[in-house]
Design a protein that fits this description.
Two copies of one chain form a homodimer. With about 375 residues, the first copy, chain A, is α/β, with parallel strands linked by helices. Helix content of chain A is about 40%, strand content about 15%. The first copy, chain A, has a seven-stranded mixed beta sheet with strand order 2-8-7-6-5-3-4, sandwiched between helices. A four-stranded antiparallel beta sheet of chain A has the order 9-10-13-12. In chain A, helix 2 packs across helix 9, helix 3 packs parallel to helix 9 and helix 4 runs parallel beside helix 5. Chain A is globular, with a radius of gyration of 21 Å. The interface between A and B is large, with 70 and 70 residues.
């Protein structure tokens, strides 16, 4: 048997759901419903038999055309044949790792970053080359990145932009520099952009998918889950050059045949009707981000966090050492969070919270944490 | 890059869909709609936010309870914690292969069998140990099976029962003997039972899941796709011992997070309302099986096939050698079928057709084939 364990995020979420009185800030998913227009659209078309059976492995053509058209409006040059509809971003990344790489290949990865990547690497037999972000403000150290890539010559670099759990947003300039390094070393760039819609403070989001000259080595991994509050539909897409997409398609087909047809129907509607909800979600998340930041200022004797530039996570530093902090917080304070070392090997003294929760929930959670800290001697 | 190609089935199906005048007997999926009660049930519950977001990685509890209860009515002893809701059978098998085995492990496999298994083995680094069925009537040679297992000591045996593409149905006695061999060699039994509902001539279907004493090494892989005409929903399940299920769950989570929630909702309804449709499907498929058999008797100068005991496939032997038979049939006669060597290395002179099509489609397809054969000199 392989040595793959259930991720810390899912362990905490499962425990939380099994304990009714626990507040879970563990798994990151919006507590909104999917936009009602999307739900109505699905209801209106659900009797059509075409949505009951397999689509092509790549996905429904109309949906791929819509996605291509959106990408191309932003400067891209994608055809529907260069897009695979996937069952979410994890599924898209997994198909990519299992098709474009051999066991023993290495991939550079910024960290701290999304816990599942490390486990997915294990499944595919891929060796991670860690490029830690600056612990001061979680910015990218381009010199370190360049040195590490030069030293290890990985086959690819995997980016999460904006980054889960730190909220780091890579700038256009940084991405162009990474793209040039990738050209130099003939390296693929995999970019998980599931939080690209959730960037704060009027910052611009930039994706390399808007520059056709990088298509041959750029793989964009997207999802409808967070943007349209559609996590349960398991729907997303990847796009790249035709050559790469054909490679990934074979494995995608073996992993799932095709993305769920009904969810593809929903995705068509979310592209047509979802934008105003996205703006609403964004406003709400901005409020919650700021609320949570204000709330934890009361706890600055015990912890510290930078305000994220994107995503709905805080990666929080504990100012003192606590043994089994997350278990204790769960058992005593009834608040589920995820321990820092799930996001990379250097973060024992950190934990992640998701603020994609109702404001009252966040207020209660921080109250519980406050009581916990003031009662606890480290 | 790994050397995984798009399966022959999907290649043919894609070509067929791109050519409007081609009749596809390539990919096997029912041309029925999902039962209308299921569709109505989904419509009635689709506004409930719980179906918009992730379920637990294992799947919705109510659905798992229903499945456990059905299994236990047949003699099993499964708890909901011993079931994972998957995005179909392929996804369930892939998660099993990537969790319970190491690259380099070997698994015994009857053949000819479902083309995707070989590709899935490649992804997981698994070595197949072929156990060919008797070419005369495609029955199992238990002595050969026993010898091969003794010689190669594989970690598991993978069964497809009834078998795609030959329709072979393994009897209770054969399965018990395989189970005893598995005990002796401490081997897992993986059984893909997606066609278990589709057994003809009043034959009984038997599953090892009805015998609790084999649960510790038996992994049942099931799907709602074929039984309830739900291929597009991507929904199925696996069940086994708690120990094995926990192992598989970690990888399942990394492949897809959870099965699509809306499809889990549909699956609940199909278990409640789907049975009478299954009887209808079965009657229809029986007619189509018999019709196709009668039709091809006209072609017995060119080909031969055994009537399947289950599934909706014929695995057909060509009596003479034709070069690139399936391409020629596609290009000249406009009929898409799948070449035999997709189902195992010994079947160059065979091809598979799916008869899950309207009778008129089958009639036209055989007419086209007849014209093709009579015009062609091998």
């Amino acid at each position: 048997m392989r040595n793959i364990e259930l991720s810390e995020i899912k362990k905490m979420e499962k425990q939380a759901r099994e304990n009714g009185d626990v507040i879970s800030l563990a798994q990151g998913y919006p507590d909104f419903s999917t936009p009602w227009q999307v739900v109505e659209f699905v209801k209106n078309h659900l009797h059509e038999a075409v949505w009951h059976q397999y689509t092509l492995a790549m996905g429904n053509l109309k949906l791929r055309e819509k996605i291509a058209s959106n990408l191309n409006e932003e400067g891209g040059s994608y055809s529907p044949e260069e897009i695979i509809i996937t069952a979410g971003a994890n599924a898209g990344l997994m198909a990519t790792l299992l098709s474009c790489f051999q066991p023993g290949d290495s991939i550079a990865i910024l960290c701290p970053t999304y816990a599942s990547y490390f486990q997915q690497f294990k499944i595919a037999g891929i060796i991670p080359i860690f490029i830690p972000l600056n612990e001061k403000n979680w910015s990218l150290d381009l010199e370190l990145l360049s040195d590490r890539i030069n030293a290890h010559k990985p086959k690819a670099i995997l980016l999460c932009n904006p980054n889960n759990p730190t909220g780091t947003l890579l700038s256009k300039n940084e991405l162009l520099q990474i793209a040039n390094i990738a050209e130099k070393y003939n390296m693929l760039i995999l970019c998980d952009e599931v939080y690209s819609f959730l960037v704060y403070d009027n910052k611009e989001y930039f994706s390399l998918s808007s520059l056709p000259e990088f298509k041959h080595n750029f793989i964009k991994i997207q999802s409808f889950s967070k943007k349209y509050a559609m996590t349960g539909w398991r729907i997303g897409y990847i796009c790249s050059s035709k050559k790469i997409i054909e490679k990934i398609l074979s494995v995608h087909d073996l992993l799932i045949n095709c993305a769920p047809s009904v969810s593809q129907l929903a995705a068509i509607s979310s592209l047509e009707n979802g934008e105003k909800f996205v703006n609403y979600f964004k406003e709400e998340f901005t409020k919650r981000r700021d609320l949570f930041y204000d709330l934890i200022q009361d706890l600055n004797e015990f912890l510290f966090a930078y305000k994220p530039q994107g995503t709905y996570f805080y990666f929080i530093k504990l100012k003192k050492n606590y043994e089994n902090f997350t278990s204790q917080l769960f058992n005593v304070a009834k608040v589920a969070v995820v321990k820092g070392n799930a996001f990379g090997p250097f973060y024992d003294n950190y934990f992640r919270i998701s603020f994609a929760k109702e404001p009252e929930v966040l207020i209660t959670a921080v109250e519980r944490m406050k009581k916990f800290f003031t009662q606890l001697t480290p």
